[in-house]
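Ticket #4471: structure output looks truncated?

Reporter: J.K.
Steps to reproduce: submitted the chain below (424 residues) through the standard prediction queue, then opened the result file.
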Amino acid sequence: MSDNKNKGNVLAIGVCFALFFMIAFVTNFAGAMGPILKNQFGASNMASQLGSAANFFAYFFMGIPGGLILKRKGYKFTSLLAAAVGFLGVGVQLASAYCGKDSAFPVYVTGAFVAGFSMCLLNLVVNPLLNTLGGGGNKGNQLVQFGCSLNSIGATLSPMILGWLVGGEVAKANVGQAVPALVIAMAIFAAAFVVIALSKIPEPHMETAEEKANRTSVIADIAATLKFRHFTLGAVAIFAYIVIESGIPNMAMLYMTTEKLGAAANPAYVGSVVAGSVCGAYWFCMMIGRLLGGALGAKISSRAMITVCSLAGIALMIATMYLPVKMVTVCGKEFPLAMCTMALAGLCTSVMWGGIFNMAAEGLGKYVPMGSGIFMAMVVGGLLLPVQGYIADTVGILNSYWLTIGLFAYVLFYALVGSRVSKQ
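Returned output as attached by the reporter:
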């Protein structure tokens, strides 16, 4: 009996790891599309972030309903629904490549919004399920960090594949050139749907018959969950983290693919191929960090990890803004020196999602599904990406990282103070 349970857990963990990959591949594809939207449609830095923002905005609408779906229908049903919706969302984005010039941009943003519903549902499934399969605590955090490592592989591949498809002619780039990557994403969703349908997934948090008979209102469940102070502050930390994680490479991509800064030529311009590879290095550093976090997760607390990473992140962002504009060559590719510290910031953001969730979920008990739903709703923090784009339009792309530094500071506060569970 024990062997069967272990085999079932291994299969469930494998499915969760695959879903983690899909989340990052599709989400970061929207971010990497910024320069294409900017050049094809003449969008500003602010408007170029609408694809990413739409993806994250969907979390606001689906987070809590998704938590209810997870509680009442279980992990398997929620995963299948997510795969189907993701296939549809990417399909709409694909359709934008064949629309007229006037409708292509809104169709693409709509597709990103629909795909965001899928990303929200997938996140609802993989985080609490992996944490539960790992037994919670440090070991639960360890398993989430390993899953996040595969998430980083998908994130690394997205900008690199897109940069390769677009080539060096950034000014002539269009959504049509991204079609092969969109087809790959749709194929991944289709394959995942089949695998999930054939897999046996445990349902540790599905409501019991007794709970179903004694259901309280959604508002009451939300209020009860938010009474956990450490959870509420953790939800705000996730809001901040989303902007940190995506804003760092998104602004770097704009910085390296903008030919002119004002009236002057941009000395840091390198084209989309190199820019995609450098931003891919950021996500690769996240993967390395998550592997290290997974290896050390059973020995080092989430609080200690996030404290160190927040401090290092602040230092690296300051270095990115103030290093001299000097080109360096790595593996035959020339790019700005400041982008080295930008990429290294991936090591700092790597463990934050899993660590924040691990600390915030401590002691929630039966409120874990609702807590996961609220967490997903707070991913709406991605709406601040156009705000960061506006700051970039106003005071310069690199100076927009002051927003990132401020958000790192809040995450540091959460790790040191806000994450401590009340004795009540």
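Triage note (M.O.): checked the attachment and the full token line is present. The first helix runs from residue 2 to 32.
Status: closed, working as intended.
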